[in-house]
Amino acid sequence: MYEEKHALVGDSTIHRIVEFAAVSSSFSLFLQKSFHSWQASLASWAVIAFVAAVVWRLLAHIPQQKQYQTPSGVNTKLPWTNPKAWLITISFGLMAVLFYSFTAWLPQIIQGMGYTKSYAANALTLFVAVQIPVSLILSVVLRKIPSRRLWLIVESLFELCGLLLLVFHRHPLVASGLIGIGAGGLFPLNLLLPIDITSDHHEAAAWSAKAQSVGYVIGAAGPIFLGWIHAVSNSFSSAVFALIAVVLFMMVVQVAATSQLKLSHTKVLAKNRRHLRKAGRI
User: pTM of the entire structure?
Assistant: First the structure.
């Protein structure tokens, strides 16, 4: 049952992130036109951040158990010394670097190609919105071809193709859609890796906690690093090439992270039936 519960949480997380991101990216343009300022449009979202901070502050006072207790009485700790866990963590972190970098800088990159702010905002909305159907389609495809490595590489290639279009200043909307397809598939696939490798829900929770806690920290550095490259080179071309390098390195990590993932076809299908009991659940 732990795979199914994890799938429920993962499905809800993916769709809520994508839905709210799509709404915010499109609504930001409306706020910019209302306030006649991008700064005011961005600052308006601080209200939501303030409310979230208050909620987290209240939740912080709720006593929580620091470690899960297995039925055998052994505490399950985070796998800090496990090489495979680090590969999964790095894979998740690089995926987050790309996602947050695209979210923060894709409109500016497209504007640097000579397009309007409105066009760039629409491209960002497309990048985010296309991730919803991607997760639904991927859930169906995984039933037929359950290989994690294959689909990790395929989704990475979608991002790579989108970046190459940006390098040559061709079809920004198509590029944004391709990058969105890649991002929409990489997130759920990375969430599945700890479940595939571990043997019980306690171990899976520990691996997932490490991958996401460290991975999101790595991801948060992505937009900052990209901004630094742009400031130093005074060009978004260098930033795009840096993202291409990240994608290529991520593909190497993905191959290494799945090198010993040798689940039998029957076992994979059994897990996938639980993951994908409802359309879009991955």
Answer: 0.76
